[in-house]
Amino acid sequence: MYPLARFILFRLTAEQAHHLVLDQLAKRPTLAKLAAPAWEPSPRLSQEVLGLSFAHPVGLAAGLDKDAIAVDGLFQCGFSFLEVGTVTPLPQPGNEKPRLFRLKSDEALINRMGFNNQGATSLACRLRAIKTRRGPIGVNIGKNKITPNDQAISDYVKAFKAVVDGADYIAVNISSPNTPGLRDLQSVTFLLDLLAAIEPVRAVRNLPVFVKISPDLADESVIEIGQALANSPYAANLGLIATNTTIERVGLTSKEQTETGGLSGKPLADRSTAVVRLLAGAVARKLPIIGCGGIFTAADAYAKIRAGASLVQIYTSFIYRGPQVVREIAEGLDDLLKADGFTHIQEAIGADLRS
Predict the structure, then answer these.
(1) Residue 244 labeled ligand binder
(2) Is the peptide bond before 86 cis (omega within 30 degrees of 0)?
(3) What count of other Cβ atoms lies within 10 Å of the Cβ of residue 80?
(4) Binding of substrate: at which residues (predicted)?
(5) Catalytic residue check, 176
(6) pLDDT (tens digit, 0 to 9) for every residue of the chain, 355 residues total?
(7) Candidate list 80, 176, 272, 310, residue with the active-site label
(8) Spans of all domains in the chain
(9) Residues near 162 by Cβ (< 8 Å), separated by ≥ 6?
(10) Which CATH number fits domain 2-354: 3.30.559.30, 3.40.50.1980, 3.20.20.70, 3.40.1030.10?
(11) 216 phi/psi in degrees, rounded to 5
């Protein structure tokens, strides 16, 4: 069914299609079952990470459902967990349109959305109204565009406080290329100061916190951040997401490659896996890692798991392949585990670092 839906959706602009799909999933959550019938993941794929239970390792990355309007419909697509946002303390419109572009021949997207969202308070109300959760829901938080970097910590604390009651984990976004100066916050000093500031709020519900980093950091910086966080006082409740989108444009063929913004999809696969591997070596299994970037197949996801990721997130492949890609990746992972003689996914995490 999805090839026909994609044919229609790809006749709209990328952002028009985005909103249409979200609106329909919000109004008619069971629509997802037409493209992705219900299925039962293998128990080999289930695990607990930072106190949260995951039926399988495939989740939705932040950015698709910024305001948590279609949570039920997205869970019915088969995801084991969702990450909503990025959300900021105050509502903001984001950057001018057009700001989302398909690179069809590269199976990629470029976005310069700019944290468009309805604000943390609005999102928190929606999360509190959810009666049944089919899996963990993370909330990705960022700072408002108008907030200078020297006041950024205040914004993260405000956003954290607003959503703390409705979130199962918090993801701290310091790596989007679409908010001016945001990536300048990717320093050990800032991160430790930020974690110290949010700790009193985090401790109220003992929420896990994941730090999302850029693929464009130098290898030395990736290792430095990983080691610092793994050896910090906050490590017991901390994880990493690798990675956000990239500003690099290597090997692309689509004419849209000249658009500014963050690139996601297949071209990001190798670098994001390399960052997972660097972080896994740096943290020495002290912190769990969510691998994100260029995952279209079970083999893509498995590469990140063997590199050290406990979980994976997808976004761009969901746009290009449809809801069925979630099941395809999860069931394919189970086949790959069996082929390599693993009885459980946890045995495969970081396997390439041990070989």
Answers:
(1) yes
(2) yes
(3) 23
(4) 66, 111-115, 173, 178, 244-245
(5) yes
(6) 788 889 999 999 999 999 999 999 999 998 877 777 788 999 999 999 999 999 999 999 999 999 999 999 999 999 999 999 999 999 999 999 999 999 999 999 999 999 999 999 999 999 999 988 999 999 999 999 999 999 999 999 999 999 999 999 999 999 998 898 889 899 999 999 999 999 999 999 999 999 999 999 999 999 999 999 999 999 999 999 999 999 999 999 999 999 999 999 999 999 999 999 999 999 999 999 999 999 999 999 999 999 999 999 999 999 999 999 999 999 999 999 999 999 999 999 999 998 7
(7) 176
(8) 2-354
(9) 89, 120, 121, 123, 124
(10) 3.20.20.70
(11) -95, 0
Residue 121 assigned ligand-binding role: no
Q: Per the annotation, does 64 bind a ligand? A: yes
Is 86 annotated in a binding site? The answer is yes
C-alpha distances out from residue 265 to 16, 94, 122, 254, Å: 19, 22, 29, 13
Whole-prediction pTM: 0.97
